[in-house]
Design brief:
With 163 residues, the chain is of the alpha/beta class. The chain has 5 helices and 5 strands.
C-alpha cells in the first residue's frame, strides 16, 4: 500500500490531495485547500499555511509528498508570493519527509490524461472518473493537489526501475 500527499502551492489557496494505492485500487483519502485571509500580511499568511499543513501532515501520514514545481509567469508579485509559500511548504514537509518529489503542471496533466496541455476542467473530470465521484473535485487548487498525488503514484514504478 502506498499513500501520497500532493500539494499545489499558493499564497491565497494551497490545494492538497491524499491518494492511496493498494494493489490496483486507488482511493481518495482526503482533499481540500488551506486558505489564508487576504487581510493578513504576508508573514501571517505564511505562518497560517505552515501551521495548517503541519497539522494536516500530523493527522495524515503518507509515504511520499509531491509538490508542484513552479514555473514563472509575467506577474512578478505572484511569482514572489507563490515562491514564498512554496518555501514554507518545503519547510513544513521537511519536518516529516527527507525527500520531496516535484512535478510541473504539464507533467501531472500528462500522467492523468496523456496530454500536458489539458484544461483544469479536464483534470477535474479525469479525477471525478478515476474515483467515481458524484461531482467535480473543487476548488481547482484541491484538484491540482489530487493530480500531483496521482502523478507520483503513476511515476513510482519508473522511479524504482532507475534505482
Amino acid at each position: 500500500m502506498i499513500r501520497v500527499l500532493g500539494i499545489d502551492p499558493g499564497i491565497a489557496s494551497t490545494g492538497f490531495g491524499i491518494v492511496q494505492k493498494d494493489g490496483d485500487l486507488l482511493e481518495l483519502i482526503n482533499y481540500g485547500v488551506v486558505k489564508t485571509p487576504s487581510n493578513f500580511n504576508i508573514p501571517e499568511r505564511l505562518n497560517k499555511l505552515y501551521s495548517e499543513l503541519s497539522e494536516l501532515m500530523d493527522k495524515n501520514r503518507t509515504d511520499y509528498v509531491a509538490v508542484e514545481r513552479l514555473f514563472f509567469n509575467t506577474n512578478l508579485k505572484t511569482v514572489i508570493n507563490v515562491s514564498e509559500a512554496k518555501g514554507v511548504i518545503m519547510l513544513a514537509v521537511s519536518k516529516y519527509y527527507s525527500e520531496v518529489f516535484e512535478y510541473t503542471p504539464s507533467e501531472a496533466k500528462k500522467a492523468l490524461l496523456g496530454a500536458g496541455r489539458a484544461t483544469k476542467k479536464e483534470v477535474q473530470y479525469a479525477i471525478m472518473n478515476i474515483f467515481k465521484m458524484d461531482r467535480l473535485p473543487r476548488p481547482d487548487d484541491a484538484a491540482d493537489g489530487i493530480a500531483l498525488a496521482l502523478c507520483h503514484i503513476y511515476t513510482i514504478p519508473y522511479l524504482e526501475k532507475t534505482k
